[in-house]
Specification:
Helix content: 55-70%
Distance between the termini: 167 Å
Radius of gyration: 53 Å
Oligomer: single chain
Number of strands: 0
Largest sheet: none
Strand content: under 5%
Number of domains: 2
Shape: flat
Length: about 290
């Protein structure tokens, strides 16, 4: 029987059972750890992806203001500038219209309708009617200009409107004067009617008289009005009184007692108008002397 010792297995021998088992276990253990690490990493990546999917990537905050935003009145400056320019054009056209207008010395009121102030559309009244149409056209043009609630535009529109209204008022006053003149010139055959119309004109003018707080006086004489622009309107009222006197002197009463009495009434009314203006002139003059 062979008594030789059993073969020895070297640790380096591939056939060594004692060493092979640990190698396999080690490899399996390493592979297991690698798989676990890979699984853990993959799980983390998956978790992050799920979270990102639920929450979403970080975005910039939306462009919504924290406080309410109200529209600015000056947001559209082009429209505002256009409105301002339109009103300036109306005012410029008004100034040109007034400058170029030559008021006629007489008007024709022979329409024969229920409205005695109605003007006949003829050559005599052409320029006056045309000016009235121009002014009303400017009023209509101004009314169509928008202000957008801007205070400056609202004020400008009111000022331009007042300018147009003042010119129209002067036109109306002149129309009344020319109507009185027309009525007197066409009623010579009816003296009583002429005197009555003249008396009505005197009283109407007295109600429209202007009594300014200040007047300018000449240095050459006491209580004499200076021929200045400031006094022009006040002096024109004296001129109107002189016209009434001239018209009254043309009336022939023909020795009729009733007409003479009526003529005297008109003369007294004219004199009262004159005295009223002179009294105011004296009052302003005395106040000026005291203040000096």
């Amino acid at each position: 029987m062979d008594q030789s010792p059993p073969p020895s297995y070297s640790s380096l021998s591939p056939k060594s059972p004692s060493t092979r088992a640990p190698s396999v276990i080690s490899a399996r253990s390493s592979s297991t750890r690698s798989n676990k690490s890979s699984t853990t990493s993959s799980s983390r990546v998956s978790l992050v992806s799920k979270v990102k999917g639920l929450v979403g990537h970080r975005r910039s905050p939306p462009d919504y203001p924290s406080d309410p935003v109200y529209p600015s009145l000056f947001g559209d400056t082009a429209d505002i500038r256009a409105s301002s320019a339109a009103m300036q054009d109306v005012l410029a056209d008004l100034m040109i219209s007034v400058k170029n207008f030559q008021c006629p010395s007489e008007l024709d009121f022979s329409a024969g309708t229920e409205n005695p102030m109605l003007l006949v559309n003829n050559q005599t009244n052409e320029s006056f009617i045309g000016q009235l149409c121009n002014l009303n056209g400017l009023r209509l043009q101004l009314s169509s200009v928008r202000t957008y609630g801007v205070v400056e535009l609202i004020d400008m529109k009111e000022r331009v409107q007042m300018s147009i209204d003042r010119v129209l008022q002067k036109m109306q006053e002149r129309k009344l004067e020319l109507h009185e003149q027309y009525m007197i010139s066409h009623m010579h055959d009816d003296t009583a009617t002429v005197l009555e119309t003249l008396h009505t004109s005197v009283r109407a003018s007295a109600k429209r008289f202007w009594y300014p707080d200040e007047l300018e006086f000449s240095h050459e004489a006491k209580n004499r009005l200076a021929e200045t622009g400031k006094n022009r309107r006040f002096i024109a009222q004296f001129d109107r009184i002189n016209e009434f006197k001239a018209e009254l002197n043309k009336v022939d009463v023909r020795g009729d007692p009733e007409l003479e009495t009526q003529q005297k009434v008109v003369s007294i009314a004219i004199g009262e108008c004159y005295q009223s203006l002179k009294a105011h002139q004296r009052k302003v003059y005395d106040n000026l002397k005291v203040s000096v």
